[in-house]
Structure formats: C-alpha cells, structure tokens
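Side project, low priority. Logging it here so it doesn't get lost.
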Amino acid sequence: MSEQNHADENRTDTAGREQDSHRGDRSACCRHGLGRRLRFGLGAAVLLLMGAVTGAGMVVAWQAHAADGAPMWMGHPGWHLGHGATLSLEQAQEMAVRKSRWIAAMIDATPEQETRLAELGAELVDEIHPLREQHRAHRQTLVDLLLSADSTRADIESVRQAELALADEASARLADALHAFSQTLSDEQRASLARHVARLQH
C-alpha cells in the first residue's frame, strides 16, 4: 500500500474519531442541558411555593411586581407573556391548575387531593390577583413623586409604607394557602416533596 493510501486512511480514522468525540460531547451536553431544564422546571413548580399554591399565588404575587416594561422600584419581575404583557386572571388561574396537577402527579396524589390543590390555587389567584392593581397604583404614585419638584421624603415614605402593607397582606394570604396545601398532603407525600426539594438544593 502506498504512502498516500496510508495517509488517506490515517486522515479518515482521525476524522472518524473526531466525529465520535463531537457526538459524545453533544450527547453529554444534551443530557446536561436536559437535566438542568428538568431541575429548573421542578424548581419553578415546587419552590414557587408548592405547585397549586405557588403556581397560583407566586405567579400572581411576582407578576404584581412586574413593571410592564418599566424599571421597578422594589421587588422582582414576575412571569409574563412578553414585554409588558402580564398574566390575566384567567391565565393565572389556568397556570395554577396546570402546576397543581403536575405536583399532584409527582407526589401520587389522589383525585380528591388533586381537586383540592387546584381549588387552593384558584382561590389564591382570586385573592391576590386584585392586589396587582394596587401595586401598580403605588408605583405610579412613586414615579409622579420622583418627577415632582414639590415632593417630600414623607410623601415617598407614605408610598413605601403602603407597598409594604400590601406585600404583608399578600404574604399572609399565601401563608394561609401554604398551610392548607400542607394539610392536604399525607406524611408520605410531604416526605416525597421534601426529597424533591432537597435534590433541587444541590
């Protein structure tokens, strides 16, 4: 066999090994990416305060802090459908039900439990969603004060206190819902959920 043939075979073998290596790297990357997406998805459902309750409450509570595309003075942006498009009441309720069913399947909930979790989520949406408008009003008042030459520190403090009171009201309602959520589960289901949460923390 000629030296040229040997060189061609060597190049072919090298190219084949490189392709296999790239495929292996891509496969590992895909597995890593999938695992990361699964962990994030579970975290979003579990750590957003337990599926039904958080799929409802925190979706609404977080998006109450969304600035609809404008800078915010406190809090974090929530889940929304694009730039400046926050969830409607119906969309938030639908998301709450969807996440409650996902959590129910994860902990092997009974049909009765699944129904109750969905009810808790929907109830919390109904309670917290209207608070979003109050938050927006506070934000607009603050913007007006910041742009006014006549505003005082006391004026801004008044808005801050009102916003803190609003957040306290929302968190109190959320705490009630979380307690009801916990009481709906069995000891085994709570332990199962705790294991899922523990895995997310590593």
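Brief comment: The longest helix spans residues 3-46.
Revisit when time allows.
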